[in-house]
Design goal:
Keywords: NAD, Oxidoreductase. The protein is built from eleven helices and 13 strands. Helix 8 packs parallel to helix 11.
Length: 300
């Protein structure tokens, strides 16, 4: 029997998992919000379906036919988890043991004043987005327990990778050095997200939650300074968080201050991080930027 992965949301993280499994011979299907993007996915060998918060999949039987694994990256909204809201009953009818991975966030832990959290700690989210994530995780685990589905949650730290990182922020002139004393964030390179999810697919532990982050929770301003140094650009001046003008979304990222333990993905799944800290990740991304620029110059 061939394996088939269905992704509810083929975004930055899920797409890398899907691409690696497709290269291994898996069938891949997944959702997007527009017909234009659907055609692009089809051209890349992925069977597309239209789905959104207010738009269920019209041909859900076709979508889930033959599916052995499901990866969910669609975020919760006002109606809760959109996948469960629209298709919980359809998923409940899947064969026992069907693997379901839910991409959550470390925001479920809330603020710990710089202290460390593990998967065993109580979930104490700070804001509305965190509370929605906790509710969505609970809904997925409940669905798994009630219907014999193998649900795992991946609590992702701040995601970065190609095209989405501090180097690109500095190059675009959008970098700011916001300083909130004692503040640290955990991060994770998208390739390390993919290898963690793949490790779980190959060695599932039904009902488990995994923190997916690197080894070095660091102040955000340090990352900007490091990226500026790599690019030979003077860093922007420091801005005090207390007086900095930030959008509500940007300010919300500073609500939580914690260090996240990644021991479980190492001990249980055997994950060896390719990018154990932001320095290693940015070095690899810098090399990719140079290679891209050199290729462009050669083609001009």
């Amino acid at each position: 029997m061939s394996n088939k992965l269905f992704c509810f949301g083929l975004g930055f993280s899920a797409r890398l998992v899907a691409d690696q499994l497709r290269d291994e011979g898996w069938e891949i299907a997944g959702t997007t919000r527009s017909a234009e993007k659907a055609e692009h996915l089809r051209s890349q060998g992925i069977e597309p379906f239209i789905f959104g918060d207010d738009q269920p999949i019209t041909n859900i039987g076709d979508a889930l036919r033959g599916v052995t694994h499901i990866l969910v990256s669609a975020p919760p909204g006002g109606l809760g988890d959109p996948v469960i809201h629209h298709h919980g009953g359809d998923l409940a009818a899947l064969p026992d043991g069907t693997w379901i991975g839910y991409l959550s966030t470390t925001g479920v832990y809330g603020d710990r004043d710089g202290g460390e959290v593990t998967e065993e700690d109580e979930l104490l989210p700070s804001g509305k987005r965190g509370r929605r994530r906790v509710a969505a995780e609970k809904a997925w685990f409940d669905l798994g327990r009630r219907h014999g589905l193998c649900v795992q949650s991946f609590r992702l730290a701040g995601i970065y990778g190609p095209g989405r990182n501090a180097l690109e922020t500095v190059r675009s002139g959008r970098a700011r050095r916001i300083v909130k004393p004692g503040q640290v964030f955990s991060r994770i390179h998208v390739e390390d997200i993919a290898q963690t999810v793949l490790a779980s697919i190959r060695n599932p532990n039904c009902g488990a939650a995994y923190n997916v982050c690197d080894d070095d929770a660091a102040p955000p301003q340090d990352v900007i300074v490091h990226a500026c140094g790599m690019l030979g650009i003077d860093p922007p001046g420091e801005e005090d968080f207390a007086t900095a003008k930030l959008t509500p979304m940007a300010a919300s990222f500073y609500e939580d201050n914690k260090r996240v333990s990644n021991a479980r993905i190492k001990n249980e799944l055997g994950v060896a991080l390719r990018y154990p800290d932001y320095r290693a990740g940015l070095t690899a991304l810098y090399d990719e930027i140079l290679a891209r620029l050199e290729s462009r110059d050669e083609n001009e």
